[in-house]
Design brief:
Length: 396
């Protein structure tokens, strides 16, 4: 395992003094963040011991592991909550913009040290998911306790909805993938797409988006006849839907999917396996919603829904070639659904609703399998050549 190099390593030894200074400008939370400072200093000491001995011994490796675990949990919280405390003292739009920029810059050394090139691909997947969760969690609590009227509405909505955290996760992810020698996602459209396949995909995506928002799912007719009612589109709902469209797609359809495809590249089922595992992980990530306002039935239904959607949208991305499509589709689906339902929760409600939802999911699974067979599967080679490293090329 490689030792951390200067100057990134030394940043962590002094970061507690730098980043928690803001907490002592306000009385609230000072005791809690004193413990955060202590943990940060401990972590710096662990990193120092592991770096000095170039961790070959199991004790040094343990020190390094403990340091990384502390860093994963503490660092995003320290950065976002430090920014929050500064905004308590210096409210206003200019301060919010400045703090947002500083939060972005502060995560550069975080990514440079945590995502080391010597990590195994499975370790990279786990680290990616944990870091993304902590960044988004810290970012969505960024505005707690702040006075909304002190900030312009669009800026407040972006901060409150976690869009800032989503942008941070993109930055951290881009640095991580670069350190691992992996390219950024493909943004160009695949020139080998077939017109007929593209028409089928566009028609289904439009149908699925409208069905998800306007269908009551209480009868067979609800698959085709919908209730066209909606609430006004506010900037807040736009921001709420934009956040998962950015963060979740970047995490799962870019980072996790790419890592799994490289890891499984020598296996004959690498393409299907990578898509399948990514979808399962994406579905399982929604289990956290049970801790909020959703009941177990709705949460499990959402897990199933997310897994199937994850399979489908990953296959669509690899077919069309442009990463803008999964981000745009995901954001549009969430924005429209939130505007119509006036809630962020996924509400299934009854067995009947669940059954008709499952019918649509079965169609989506069928389309995913269809994309992964025949000429359509061969068409994905163009995208794979652009998102896979040459040494880990995947041929189908």
């Amino acid at each position: 395992m490689k030792a951390y190099s200067s100057p990134w390593f030394w940043w962590y030894f002094v970061q507690g003094l730098i980043l928690t200074a803001g907490y002592f400008l306000a009385a609230q939370g000072a005791q809690f963040w004193l413990w955060a400072l202590v943990l940060t200093i401990i972590e710096g000491g662990l990193l120092l011991v592991s770096a000095i001995s170039a961790p070959k011994h199991w004790i040094s490796r343990l020190f390094k592991l403990l340091a990384v675990l502390i860093q994963l949990i503490v660092y995003p919280l320290i950065v976002f909550y430090s920014g929050q405390q500064f905004l308590r003292v210096l409210p206003g739009n200019l301060s919010l913009i400045l703090i947002a920029v500083l939060i972005l810059l502060a995560h550069i050394p975080f990514a440079k040290v945590l995502f080391t090139p010597d990590q195994h691909y499975l370790t990279r997947v786990i680290t990616t998911m944990l870091v993304a969760f902590m960044v988004i969690y810290a970012g969505t609590t960024f505005t707690e306790g702040l006075t909304k009227s002190a900030f312009a509405s669009p800026l407040w909505s972006f901060a409150e909805a976690g869009v800032l955290a989503a942008i941070v996760s993109v930055l951290v992810g881009a640095i991580a993938m670069r350190q691992w020698g992996l390219p950024l996602p493909s943004w160009r459209f695949n020139p080998n797409m077939q017109a007929g396949v593209l028409i089928v995909l566009v028609v289904f995506i439009i149908y699925f988006t409208l069905w998800n928002a306007f269908s009551t799912n209480d009868s067979f007719q609800s698959l085709f006849i919908w209730s066209w009612h909606s609430n006004p589109l506010t900037f807040n709902w736009f921001a709420q839907g934009l956040e998962p469209g950015i963060a979740e797609e970047w995490e799962y359809r870019y980072m996790v999917l790419t890592l799994l495809l490289v890891w499984l590249s020598r296996h004959r089922l690498a393409l299907s396996g990578g898509i399948f595992i990514t979808g399962l992980l994406f579905g399982a990530s929604h289990l956290i919603n049970v801790l909020g306002e959703q009941n177990w039935f709705d949460t499990l239904s959402q897990i199933q829904f997310a897994a199937v959607f994850g399979w489908f949208i990953a296959a669509v991305y690899l077919y069309v070639g442009s990463f803008s499509i999964p981000m745009l589709v995901h954001a549009t689906i969430d924005i429209l659904s939130m505007v119509v339902s006036n809630t962020e929760a996924s509400i299934t409600g009854s067995i009947t609703v669940y059954l008709f939802q499952t019918i649509v999911e079965v169609v989506m699974i069928g389309l995913t399998v269809w994309l992964l067979t025949g000429r359509r599967r061969q068409t994905m080679q163009w995208t794979l050549d652009r998102i896979m490293p040459k040494q880990g090329a995947l041929t189908i």
